[in-house]
Amino acid sequence: MRSGRAVVEHHLDHEEAEIEPALAPHLGSPQWKAAAKQFRKEPPKVAGWFFAWLQDGMTDEVRAFLGTTIPGPVRTILSKVLGRGYHREIAPVWA
After folding, report:
1. For residue 84, which of 48, 44, 40 has the smallest C-alpha distance?
2. Which of 94, 19, 23 has the alpha carbon at shortest distance from 56?
3. What Å distances lie between residue 76 and 15, 68, 72, CA to CA?
4. Cα 82 to the center of its chain, rounded Å
5. What is the pLDDT along the chain (95 residues), one digit of tens a residue?
6. Max alpha carbon distance in the chain (Å)?
7. Which residue, 13, 39, 48, 88, could crosslink 83 as a Cys pair with Cβ 3.0–4.6 Å?
8. How far apart are alpha carbons 75 and 13 in whole angstroms?
């Protein structure tokens, strides 16, 4: 029997290998921009936890790409300040 972590990692590996390349050509589309606009309506804590999770274990290459779309100070505030609960409550479970 596989652990919960193994199942989640398998799922995320699938997303990175198959879904992200298919999504890449659409990142500047009106639909993508509409989705991003909807995300900005989320409460700050939700955005903070999302960005903390998103960057947890992120490679330098992917972090550099993220930096081309979201400025470093914004990422830091979201993930380190508003996402501190993620780092306190969730990240230790995955370590």
Report:
1. 48
2. 94
3. 25, 14, 6
4. 14
5. 667 778 778 877 877 888 788 888 888 899 989 988 888 888 988 989 988 998 988 888 888 888 888 898 998 999 999 999 999 998 888 76
6. 43
7. 48
8. 23
The two three-digit tokens of residue 6, written as one number: 């193994």
Name the burial class of residue 95, with classes exposed (0-12), middle (13-18) and buried (19+) by CB atoms within 10 angstroms of its CB.
exposed
CA atoms of 52 and 87, how far apart (whole Å): 7
* Encoded amino acid at 9, one letter: E
- Rounded Cα–Cα distance for residues 56 and 33 (Å): 24
Q: What angle do CA 59, 61, 62 make, to 5 degrees?
A: 70
The tokens describing 45, both together, are 């804590």
